[in-house]
Amino acid sequence: MKEDLIKNIKSFKNSAEIVYSAGDYTSSTILYFKCLFVVLDLIILQKKGKTPKDHTERFSILKENFSEQYSILDKYYPIYRQTYSLTIDKLTCDEVRKNVERIIEECKISI
User: Fold this and answer.
1) Over the Cα atoms of the chain, what is R_g?
2) CA–CA separation, 102 vs 108, rounded Å?
């Protein structure tokens, strides 16, 4: 499972970068969030031996066990929800992108 998660992190991150370079910041933001969710699932898997089944369980596990990662997700999750109905600007996408890259680096995931 760990290998699959790392593969998905790389795939979502690479796709996000391609879409970002095309100037589609809404789609890029969605892909950065998908990457973030998988990174968080990898963190949970490594520490808890399981992955969450959905966003609700992910939030609960993070809140209880990983306060720093929970704070980031809690702060930026409304942006993810906005992607369903609003256009995301470059500045907002850059903020999400920066945090995803920071968490990947902190977790020492080589992509």
Assistant:
1) 13
2) 10
Q: How far is CA 103 from the centre of its chain?
A: 9
pTM for the model: 0.91
> CB under 8 Å to 71, separation ≥6 — which residues?
none
CB-based contact 31:12 (threshold 8 Å): yes
Helices and strands (DSSP H and E) totals, the chain? 5, 0
Q: Is the pLDDT of residue 107 over 90?
A: no
CA distance 13 to 93: 13
Long-range contacts of 69-76 (CB under 8 A, 24+ apart): 69/40, 69/43, 69/103, 72/99, 72/103, 73/36, 73/40, 76/33, 76/36
Tokens of 80: 């993810």
Q: Torsions phi, psi of 30, nearest 5?
A: -60, -45
Q: For each of the domains in the chain, give its residue range(s) and CATH number, in order of start.
A: 2-106 (1.20.120)
